[in-house]
């Protein structure tokens, strides 16, 4: 038994092989959402573009102590740090890519900082909103002082980032994963090979311009249909 729609029209994508609706862009449109940056369809979330301006001092909390200690311990602070952003209770230091290894060395070894652990290295693709589209984000933790800080570098596609594995060995597989998913090349990494995808895989699946369908499935001979050929439930 089928139930006829109240308005007398069949919903788009209700039948197999009917054209599916796809969002107009990565910022809006999915699941019929308009007027916000929410592409999930849930919660009314708004996707914010990356912050461009530095936050003014004082930053509050231990953030001033961390930045002051780094500035005192690192003579190239003014040249290496592009901006300092405090947002939603978190401190982010935006650093020139070529300086990242120097900065993390100071962050780990200086007695006033002591960020002994790099808990995460990950990537972000700001396609269409930043000429340096590929960002690498480092989360550092000071177990001595119970503090956390985020470091972030930005590079254009094809520009390498110095590896921090000599300072934080835990970054080894994390840099490999960022290379695998986003295509960021970490210069000086001891073994920069894929860690999630097969060695002969083409492309980097977490880039914004990576195809959403039509990719042959390994070992099965099947193929994921592209978005405009999938069934949509509405």
From TrEMBL:
Entry membrane topology: Peripheral membrane protein
PANTHER family registered for this protein in UniProt: NADH DEHYDROGENASE [UBIQUINONE] IRON-SULFUR PROTEIN 3, MITOCHONDRIAL (PTHR10884:SF14), NADH DEHYDROGENASE UBIQUINONE IRON-SULFUR PROTEIN 3 (PTHR10884)
Origin species: Paractinoplanes deccanensis
Family statement: Belongs to the complex I 30 kDa subunit family.
EC number(s) from the headed UniProt entry: 7.1.1.-
NADH:ubiquinone oxidoreductase 30kDa subunit domain span: 94-214
Principal cellular location given in the protein's record: membrane
Listed name of the protein: NADH-quinone oxidoreductase subunit C
Region annotated Disordered, chain positions: 1-33, 215-234
NCBIfam families (UniProt xref): NuoC_fam (TIGR01961), PRK07785.1 (NF005856)
